[in-house]
histidine kinase (Lacinutrix neustonica), 498 residues
Amino acid sequence: MKDYFSTTYRRMLALIAIAGIIFLSMCFFAFYFIGDQDKRIIAFLIIGFIITMGSYVFFYRKLIEKPLNLITNVLEKNDTSAIIQLQKSSKEFSYIGDLFLSSNQQKEELKQAKEKAEESELLKASFLTNLSHEIRTPMNAILGFSDLLNSQKLTDSEKIEYIDIIRRSGKNLVSIIDDLIEMSKIDTNQVTPNHVPFNLNAVLNDIKQTIDITIPKDKPLKVFLDEPKHPVVFQLISDETKLRQVIVNLINNAVKYTEHGTVNFGYKINPEDNALEFFVKDTGIGISEGEFTNIFSRFNRIQNDKTIKLSGLGLGLSISKAYIEMLGGKIWLESTENIGTTFSFTIPLKLDGLPVVEQMEKAINTVDKAKPLNILIAEDNDINFMLIKRVLSIRKYTVIRAKNGEEAVAVCREDNSIQLIIMDLKMPKMGGFEARKIIKTFKPYLPVIAHTAYSSTEINNEVFDAGFIDCITKPLDKTELFKVIDRIEHLTPNPVLV
């Protein structure tokens, strides 16, 4: 293009030169045939012509040729300095400079978007590969050891070992599925916080006991719950389930990446921001500073020689960050490689009017601790009922069955010995929500535990508004069920049968 403009410019100069020569020749030729007065006029014309042509050449070079050369540099070399000079040119060329600048910005944005999309695709591909591995690993254990259990030559100790492996593998598989479903629900804004008053200190103690059970006895690692200098003495209003999962996720990560040493967790009150600040501190392998920004990204896992043998999808921190932001807080970390990591996060400090020692005193007064509980199980599925019944038989509880909501309502009306109900939410004829609503009209303090196939993070306002005291999820966790029952018994200091 530059050659084209140069050639055009030379041609224009040649034409001007030819025209000028012809004009000047005619003027000089006329000098011999006209008078002195006319010669002066012709002289002025010649001078004017020369000045006009000189000005034309000067301004052409300045106002046309130079901007055209700048445009050529932009188009051929993408010269940013040429764009800046164009913007300083006359109005039309300045507008062209603005267009070039806008075009370059759009190109840069498209380039960044393309790089981000390519990076995302690589991460997704890596994630799917990792997902396949994570799912096949527990499935391999479940199927493999299930086949081995059919052998007649196994000792009792081997059978117990294989059953324990199958159980743990099943839990790992459920955890993977729960994370995937939860991430999908977060993306589609189907997860909302459920703010209820609860005893924060009791929740943290419960988490501590649960974590202690999960740590292998041969692992040289201790988990400590640090007592706050100024503990919360009133019930905290927040989403207990989501807060619990965030803390558990962070502690599980700390335990996973700490081969030996300690994991400390706890909280402190931040009066300036009117917030609670939680922390989970470990003495593990640490995280390099370059990973700080990516650590909360989904599909992202730290990959090095120390972590390659560890399992997991890398969704736990993404889910935790989403929950914390949902609750109105923020999360950050401090870490030094080979020394340890501290994850910290905040949530708003909102307290209920009742001290924690008085919580739930108005609730359930139906459990007689001197006798085994009489429990009504509202469950339409035979296998699910059989499983719950076998689990409850460990503690010698008396079990009565209702196959749908209508039967559950009828049994409660007729049998005053019922002290607790475990109710499936989805049953024929009448569902769990409707049945609980009716039972509440004539036995308002009878505790009812919801039993649902939804993950625990999906417990929403509807469950508690309907009057359920707690919720357990499928597949049934024996330990969790007993913890819920124990919690209900603990909250009933003055047992009175209704």
Remarks:
- The mean pLDDT is 78.
- Residues 100-187 form a domain with the Helix Hairpins fold (CATH 1.10.287.130).
